[in-house]
Design goal:
Layout lengths: L17 H18 L1 H4 L3 H11 L6 H9 L1 H5 L2 H24 L6 E3 L3 E3 L4 E10 L2 E12 L2 E9 L2 E2 H16 L1 H17 L1
Antiparallel strand pairs: 1-3, 2-3, 3-4, 4-5, 5-6
Length: 194
């Protein structure tokens, strides 16, 4: 999911359906993986850069961060909020990038999306065929002033936001917000090495 440039003939994100946006972005990301496999091998930073440029412009990390932290977002200082958004984004770039390293040209099936017209949200459902079974991946999206944005991803029925909310909530409760941010910084540093 890369930003549309002046020389880009694709329609702007707000001009296409959320399903087309997911399909187009997935296609471009997978093409980049195939085309740059040599450059990616042994250089995770290159992979993370591709994910950041192609996919992440369509994620709303501030909204995801607010939902992940829940009530802890309100008690965090403005500086802690900004630090958390930056580190949570880095965590997701690395998590998504590392998952893509295992991709071996499996087929992606795009299912009809589910729309909630009152909330201006949709869920784009996909399935990845892998070794005779399928892995369902759903993208929860809303129509922002900048076009469709992802605010949650569910893999095999497990919500990324809900999963991290539980884990991070326990850390904040037991050790505080500063400790959570410090742990994310350390975790992201370790992931960038490998």
């Amino acid at each position: 999911m890369a930003p549309c440039g002046a020389a880009d003939s694709r329609p702007a994100p707000g001009e296409i359906s959320p399903q087309e946006l997911v399909r187009d972005t997935s296609s471009r990301m997978l093409s980049a993986l195939r085309d740059e496999r040599q450059a990616i091998a042994g250089n995770s930073a290159h992979l993370y850069d591709l994910v950041s440029k192609i996919v992440l412009p369509y994620f709303d990390f501030r909204r995801m961060s607010q939902w992940v932290l829940g009530k802890n977002w309100r008690i965090a200082t403005p500086e802690q909020r900004e630090q958390f958004v930056v580190e949570f984004r880095r965590l997701l770039v690395r998590t998504y990038g590392n998952a893509l390293l295992n991709y071996a040209d499996e087929k992606i099936i795009y299912l009809p999306f589910v729309e909630d017209s009152t909330a201006r949200t949709v869920t784009v459902r996909t399935e990845i065929e892998q070794g005779g079974s399928t892995i369902p991946i759903s993208y929860s999206m809303y129509n922002s002033s900048d076009g469709w944005k992802v605010y949650d991803v569910s893999i095999s029925g497990v919500s990324l936001v809900t999963n991290y909310r539980s884990t991070f909530g326990n850390i904040v409760r037991d050790e505080g917000m500063s400790s959570l941010i410090k742990q994310l910084v350390e975790r992201n540093g370790m992931q960038s090495d490998g």
